[in-house]
Design goal:
Helix content: 25-40%
Radius of gyration: 21 Å
Strand content: 15-25%
Distance between the termini: 20 Å
Number of helices: 15
Bound molecules: 1,4-dihydronicotinamide adenine dinucleotide, the ligand N[C@@H](CCC(=O)N[C@@H](CSC=O)C(=O)NCC(=O)O)C(=O)O, zinc ion
Length: 412
């Protein structure tokens, strides 16, 4: 039966209150309005950021809401004026929009987009500042402009990446957040976009979850000579070797501050460090373990409301650089489809070569070819598969440190 223009009643995991178990509810999903797209979500993964907002520590967290932002699905219907996708298209909803028109998009300096952020930050759609989700007339807030813990969701058209229909949605759903955030994918992602790790660099990765391991993998591909993985959970260490980590440190094994331990081990500090946890004390350690004069530290983790970073300004005066990254610097609508192509090994070498200067093509060509044609790891980050009704157990696994990504089949 055609559902276009109709309210769809479907199942969704609703977060009624912070920290209270998600409840599988029958929700009503209104048809998309102008500039909106309704998507049938087939697979969604859980990211630590969902747990963060659910915990009540996100200043933008509103309840009741439908969490979820790492997913893939099929367009069910589109609102007026939507031209770039149509029903039946395979898509990845992107929490980071790309309108291609706002000053952010046009700047060439950032992947952040300003078009719908004001609405997605308060759980509504831009057109009328209302939610498309309700339960018996009670509105339920959207989350990150995606709300993928629902069998159907409505998103802004600037937040939809159309992908090759051949791609397995149960795998490429991971390209909606965590993996690209850290991964290089032919000189893209946090390691390349944000920090530009060079051959021979010493890299420290704090936090060996999906995001940290993707950073490690990217650093390895960039030619890092040492990749030091730091985690307080030693069961993370074995798996991390497969993602390129060469040395492990558990801060709990040391009396000295972890930054001092790393400085001592590296003749003055690392060239690059990445904080992939969301802990402001660790962010400080990650900056302070960087080498004087040039060390760069990238904040990837998301810290709780009220938390602030600090260090002695002398750390920066003496040449260390403190940066951050959102979605690894990727432009969502234009680059997520390329990541999918790369996963499918179909992307054209030519388009990537266009991104390189002549000198770089000449000097980096052999390395580039190696990187470009190497297989894209995505499946390796999926440690568990589950279903929507089992979502609370999936989050338990995350909190116990049992998993990397758990992918939920939304219709089982
Ligand atoms: N900036 C961005 O665009 C994105 C940021 N994130 C953020 O990145 C962070 C990591 O996300 P996931 O990998 O999904 O999380 P995760 O929970 O899978 O991994 C975090 C790791 O940090 C370790 N850890 C916790 N406290 C630690 C400490 N004090 N010292 C050392 N290790 C510690 C844990 O044992 C775990 O292995 C989260 O804060 C998440 O919100 C996630 C996606 C995108
Ligand atoms: N609402 C949060 C913001 C958290 C945050 O920084 N999110 C990251 C993505 S985390 C994905 O898993 C991000 O890209 N931020 C940029 C943005 O525009 O939100 C808070 O206020 O703490
Ligand atoms: Zn995420
Ligand atoms: Zn924009």
């Amino acid at each position: 039966m055609a559902t276009q223009g109709q309210v769809i009643t479907c199942k969704a995991a609703v977060a009624w209150e912070p920290n209270k178990p998600l409840v599988i509810e029958e929700v009503q999903v209104a048809p998309p309005q102008a500039g909106e797209v309704r998507i049938k979500i087939l697979f969604t993964a859980l990211c630590h950021t969902d747990a963060y907002t659910w915990s009540g520590k996100d200043p933008e967290g509103l309840f009741p809401c439908i969490l979820g932002h790492e997913a893939a699905g099929i367009v069910e219907s589109v609102g007026e004026g939507v031209t770039e996708v149509q029903p039946g298209d395979h898509v990845i909803p992107c929490y980071q929009a790309e309108c291609k028109e706002c000053k952010f998009c046009k700047s060439g300096k950032t992947n952040l987009c300003g078009k719908v952020r004001v609405a997605t930050g308060v759980g509504v759609m831009l057109t009328d500042r209302k939610s498309r989700f309700s339960i018996n007339g009670k509105p339920i807030y959207h989350f990150m402009g995606t709300s993928t813990f629902s069998q159907y969701t409505v998103v802004h058209d600037v937040s939809v990446a159309k992908i090759d229909p051949v791609a397995p949605l149960e795998k490429v759903c991971l390209l909606g957040c965590g993996v690209p955030t850290g991964k290089h994918f032919s000189r893209l992602g946090a390691v390349w976009n944000t920090a530009k790790v060079e051959q021979g660099s010493i890299v420290a990765v704090f936090g060996l979850g999906t995001v940290g391991l993707a950073v490690a993998e990217g650093a390895k591909a960039a030619g890092a000579s040492r990749i030091i993985g730091i985690d307080i959970d030693t069961k993370k260490f074995d798996r991390a070797k497969d993602f390129g980590v060469t040395e492990f440190i558990n801060p709990k094994d040391h009396e000295k501050p972890i930054q001092q331990v790393i400085v001592d081990l590296t003749d003055g500090g690392v060239d690059y460090s990445f904080e992939c946890i969301g802990n402001v004390d660790v962010m400080r350690a990650a900056l302070e373990c960087c080498h004087k004069g040039w060390g760069t530290s990238v904040i990837v983790g998301v810290a709780a409301s009220g938390q602030e970073i600090s260090t002695r300004p002398f750390q920066l005066v003496t040449g260390r650089v403190w940066k951050g990254t959102a979605f690894g610097g990727f432009k969502s609508r234009s680059q997520v489809p390329l990541l999918v192509d790369k996963y499918l090994k179909k992307v054209s070498a030519f388009s990537a070569l266009l991104n390189l200067s002549d000198n770089l093509i000449y000097s980096a060509f052999p390395t580039f070819c190696l990187l470009f044609f190497q297989e894209i790891k995505v499946d390796e980050y999926i440690t568990h598969n589950s279903t929507l009704p089992e979502i609370n157990k999936a989050f338990d696994m995350m909190h116990e440190g049992m998993c990397l990504r758990v992918v939920l089949d939304m219709f089982v």
